[in-house]
Amino acid sequence: MKQRSSFGSRFGAVAVVGGSVVGLGNIWRFPYIAGENGGGAFILVYIAISALICIPIMLTEFSLGRHTRSNALRAFRRLSPRGYWNGAGYLGIATSTIILSFYAVIAGWALKFLQVALVNGFHRQSSEEIRTVFQQYIDHGWGPMFWTFAFIAFIAFIVVRGVEKGIEKFGKIVMPFMILLLIGLVINSLTLDGAKEGISFLLRPDFSKINSHVILQALGQAFFSLSLGMGTMITYGSYIPKNENMFRLAGTVAVTDTCVAILAGLAIFPAVFSYGISPTSGPELVFITLPNVFGNMTGGYLLGIAFFFLLFTASISSSVSLLEVATLYISEEMHLRRRTATLIAVGTVAGLSALCLWSQAPDSSLRVAGQNIFDLFNNATSLYMLPLGGLLSVLFAGWVLRGRTLQEEVTSRGRYGNALFPYYRVIVRFVAPVVIVLLFLSQIGVI
Ligand code: PHE
Ligand code: NA
Fold it and tell me: Which PROSITE patterns match (predicted)?
């Protein structure tokens, strides 16, 4: 077997995995999904689901990758040579490609907004004015197409250069800045008129709002935000050194990710209530609220630039990890050079992005089940494809893999890990599969 590169250091591992995990999912997706699903109640469910189901799944994916030291598909194939599980690998490759195609559209919005911030375009704009500018921009397909493709080309360039040179450097620099900036924004938001309302919307749980759809939304968001259910963490697991404590790694990463998401929510919802924006305004929520904040605060000009620049940068490392799944598969399985493999993967992504963009035009007939392609990709991946991928990986680890093998990998032969392993095993074999299947069944109306 070829020598695989592995992360340079422990901080390197946290930074790279963290780089994949912290991204648009926290800042763009989490706030609007929380807003649409009841705020505080959603957050509570989100935290519970992350701790109970998603951290164990992250551990499982790390283990599958580290054990086999290979790409998502080969990981399944090596452990189950008859090929019954190949589908799980293919599903991950398909899901990551689809996610990247709409992720790049959002990253393109971030780039556009960076440009608007640079020319001070948010200054004293009302939320209606910002919404109009945004809508007009999206309706004319060429601008968004330009920024989306520019972003994809940029990601391709990084992936061609290989793992540690390209990705690690970025992760280390960007994350701390993003967190600092968010904290600054939260402090500012707390001084707004609507701060109280915003905070209570986000933090006061209204239990009557919890139903199985909200739980599935929380599960899907947690999968998306933690980069689970599609092979990224299997692929990244293959770079984790043998002696790394994976319980600690998964815990650190998940807690960081959740904190960033909640910080984003705390920065955004006070503004939602202060500037009269609907908490359920969907995917454009962040792009309407924060420009409002920037346009009305002292120093908002520079902070706006910093924010959209960081948003763009944070989406780079996540996108790289998404592209890495298909690229690694193509180069390792089809024995193609990395450059060729990247080009094939990126070409597919660009084609799917174009579909998303065309379907966002107001007169577009590109609609499936009443949604445009962008919404379809965004919803279907989180609500179905990722949880299904996660379900397959826990079923595989819990029921197909030898218990001993799993234990050695998950615990890194550490004492601490061994104490937690029995709980982990019960979750992987029973709790996680049952919860996911029940949520699926209730979503399709069977129960
Ligand atoms: N977790 C990333 C985010 O929150 C998105 C992502 C999903 C990245 C799946 C890789 C795989 O933005
Ligand atoms: Na995330």
Answer: NA_NEUROTRAN_SYMP_1, NA_NEUROTRAN_SYMP_3
